[in-house]
UniProtKB/TrEMBL annotation:
Its main location: other. Residues 78-442 form the Solute-binding protein family domain. The keyword Heme does not apply. This is Solute-binding transport lipoprotein. GO terms for molecular function: peptide transmembrane transporter activity. GO terms for biological process: peptide transport. Belongs to the bacterial solute-binding protein 5 family. It comes from the Bacteria. The keyword Signal applies. Transmembrane segments: none annotated. GO terms for cellular component: ATP-binding cassette (ABC) transporter complex; cell envelope; periplasmic space. Signal peptide: none annotated. PROSITE patterns: PROKAR_LIPOPROTEIN.
Length: 526
């Protein structure tokens, strides 16, 4: 039904770089042997309720909740998970039907039926949490439960990307008895039907996952338990890996640590797995700000910023410069910002400002979060300040906050310019454009773009063969370049550092680069 392989091959491909000397014969062995596998990450959940999360909380959700569709290893389009089958039942891609597996239950024994699915989706829209994923359901009109096992989604408009939305952890199925229809769950507990049960949770510190014996889905668990430890920075996380306090690190490795692991003299008890990344880093300009709201100011910033220097000097080439919001590896990727602005050129930037009547240095305050996108973030913003001020055209003030209060700030429109990272909801160019435009978007700053929202996106969503929508996305990106409301900086690569005793890391990332911890296991023979 969907032909996305052409655009996703690079994202789905995972290449392993082994730093382990020697080799041997490995077997799965007893999954319980050696105790829980301990995973370290700098991406701590902001919530345990799927209706409140449009962020990195999905890393945990993927493993403790279940969605109708998901990504078995190697899949680049959604496949059934809690569902037995799903399909559009009309030629216009407006009616989507799923039949659930038989005998599904939540971890507390309650039945997971069609009413539970309807409840889970309806409450996302009813609650409409400020940081929640209601924006992903813009095309949904209503959900219909037919009997115990049939769910029918009626869409307002054609939307070939809707199966990809259902595969996001935001659409996790929750127990109606424990998750109110009109408010978020507040007791800090979880009732899911995923591969694991959340046995215990210490916010910001650790999550203890144990096998869910009632799980019915595609995941073949190669371990019985996983502990996820949350770190504030890469240095502490890598030290814990070297000290054998954790078995594997994911999300948040600093460039210096990656380079050290890649070096020939690296610790032979460790391995590094490198994969193509789908995450991006970008700046957001607030149109309500006196200076950031001026197109000439935004374009002048775009003309000055040196992405290649950022990628090399700050990130040690562990990221790639990015010149469009859609990253390399996806159908529709362009190099629009480079095509329009070329190499960094302060003289051209000065001309842009002068033609707009701006002759004095422009005061701008750039905000960033201290604990979300890795320890290089602060250094990145210092480099941006250096580049912009070296042009003689800007006076830059840097400010920062921890993630939770940072989110509240940009949702209230407090920041003139702020940094964001984006890990895709699903691997399609649509998801690098649609969330950021329109009156209600993921950034809290309205961005009316009628050509994109009323023509290009609706037309592209009528096309199931995603390779056929390239022209629409190229045009949408050119509009983003002209507006310069969003300024892409870099595209990441994915790195997993692990003990030499751990296998499965190269299979553990889905196309949205979310870790499926059930793929991890200990090698038991050499």
């Amino acid at each position: 039904m969907f032909n996305r392989n052409r655009g996703l091959r690079q994202v789905a491909a995972i290449a392993s770089i082994s730093l382990v000397a020697g080799c041997g014969m490995f077997s799965d062995g007893d999954p319980a042997e050696g105790g829980p596998i301990v995973v370290g990450t700098t991406s701590a959940p902001s919530t345990l309720d799927p209706a409140a999360s449009w962020d990195g909380s999905w890393e945990l959700f993927r493993n403790i909740y279940q969605t109708l569709l998901s990504y078995p290893n190697g899949a680049t389009s959604p496949q059934p998970d809690a569902a037995q089958s799903c399909e559009f039942t009309d030629s216009a891609n407006r009616v989507y039907r799923c039949e659930l597996r038989e005998g599904l239950t939540f971890s507390d024994g309650d039945a997971l039926d069609a009413q539970a699915v309807k409840h889970s989706i309806d409450r996302i829209l009813a609650i409409n949490a400020p940081s929640g994923p209601a924006g992903l359901l813009g095309s949904l009109d209503r959900v219909q439960a037919v009997g115990d096992r049939e769910v029918v989604f009626h869409l307002k408009t054609s939307d070939a990307t809707f199966p990809f939305v259902l595969a996001t952890p935001a659409m996790s199925v929750v127990d109606p008895d424990d998750y109110p229809a009109d408010r978020l769950r507040e007791d800090g507990a979880v009732t899911g039907s995923g591969p694991y049960v959340l046995d215990s949770y210490d916010e910001g510190a650790r999550a203890e996952l144990v096998r869910n014996d009632s799980y019915k889905g595609f995941a073949e668990r190669r371990n019985d338990a996983v502990t996820i430890r949350y770190f504030q920075d890469s240095g502490a996380m890598v030290k814990a890996l070297r000290d054998q306090d954790i078995d594997l690190t994911y999300r948040g490795l600093a460039a210096d640590d990656i380079v050290a692991l890649q070096s020939k003299g690296a610790d032979e008890t460790l391995q590094l797995v490198e994969g193509a990344g789908a995450d991006i880093s970008y700046l957001v300009f607030n149109p309500r700000d006196e200076w950031a709201g001026k197109p000439a100011v935004r374009r002048a910033v775009a003309q000055v910023v040196d992405r290649a220097t950022i990628a090399h000097r700050i990130y040690k080439d562990t990221v790639d410069p990015l010149y469009s919001m859609v990253p390399k590896g996806l159908t529709g990727h362009t190099t629009g910002f480079f095509d329009n602005f070329g190499d960094p050129d302060p003289d051209k930037a000065r001309q842009i400002l002068t033609e707009a009547g701006i002759t004095e240095p422009v005061p701008l305050t750039l905000w960033y979060t201290t604990d979300r996108y890795g320890s290089e973030t602060a250094v990145l913003f210092k480099e941006l300040k250096r580049q912009l001020e070296a042009s003689g055209l800007f006076e830059i003030t840097l400010k920062s906050r921890p993630w939770k209060t940072y989110v509240e700030g940009y949702q209230k429109g407090e920041y003139p310019v702020f940094g964001r990272g984006w890990f895709p909801d699903f691997p399609d160019a649509d998801n690098y454009i649609a969330p950021f435009v329109g009156e209600q978007n993921a950034l809290g700053t309205p961005y009316p773009a009628p050509k994109i929202t009323e023509e290009l996106l609706p037309r592209s969503r009528r096309e199931s063969d995603r390779a056929q929508v390239e022209a629409d996305f190229e045009e949408a990106q050119q509009i983003l370049v002209q507006d310069a409301r969003l300024l892409p900086l870099w595209q990441g690569k994915q790195y997993v550092a692990a003990s030499a005793e751990i296998s499965g890391a190269e299979r553990s990332l889905d196309p949205s680069t979310i870790m499926m911890v059930w793929e991890l296991y200990r090698k038991t023979s050499w």
